[in-house]
Amino acid sequence: MSMEIGEALPEYKRFTYSDYSTWSDDERWELIDGVPYAMSAPSRRHQEILSQFIRVIGNYLVGKPCKVYAAPFDVRLNADTHDDTVVQPDIVVICDKAKTDDKGGLGAPDMVVEILSPSSAMRDRVLKFRRYLNAGVREYWIVEPDSESVSVHLLKDREYVTHVYGKGDTAPVQVLEGCAIELKEVFVE
Question: Of 105, 95, 109, 168, which is closest to residue 139 (Cα–Cα)?
């Protein structure tokens, strides 16, 4: 079957984590509400931004209980129910060790960062946005490399409140008290 990156499989069958765990590691997939989505390899620019975020957050977390993980890192958003959603966010921060096992994350991470790419932008902005909100992800950052901006979505009263920051701004990380990211450090060439 020929598939485009970011396209859902046309089949009606819904899959679970049990199915997902049998798929080849040669291809990257996400499973959202039982529907598989193929993932493409990230661009050089994407990887540079990801590396800078990991460096800044990782340095902040030295000696603290929270951990930061970079993709590929499976997050089973509803592992305690029907287990049909496995995402691979670019970056996750998890502060509760009980929300991890040897296979990845279990339930909602405290923070998720998605760096947009052409093949995943709609999925990150719409589909995964709703899944992260419903799962209770406390802080969801959408990074836009082209405009060098970040939309920070903070969970409040079961809704996201959004703040937008540009390259010259310092964006506070609400789930990590005292942590702020100078975006000029992230959007470097």
Answer: 109
Integer Cα distance of 22 and 185 in angstroms: 39
pLDDT digits (tens, 9 = 90+) for 62-77: 999 999 999 999 999 9
CATH topology of domain 43-186: tt1808, chain A (3.90.1570)
Q: How many residues does the chain have?
A: 189
3-state secondary structure of 159: strand
0.70 exceeded by pTM: yes
> Given its phi and psi angles, is residue 175 left (phi above 0), alpha (psi -120 to 50 degrees) or beta?
alpha
Give 139's strand partners. Answer: 111, 154
Place of tokens 């049909």: 84
Concatenate the DSSP letters of all residues of 102-148 into one string.
TTEEES--SEEEEE--TTTHHIIIIIHHHHHHHHT-SEEEEEETTTT
Q: Is the peptide bond before 109 cis (omega within 30 degrees of 0)?
A: no
Torsion angle of C-alpha atoms 70, 73, 77, 78, degrees rounded to 10: -160
For the chain, domain boundaries: 43-186
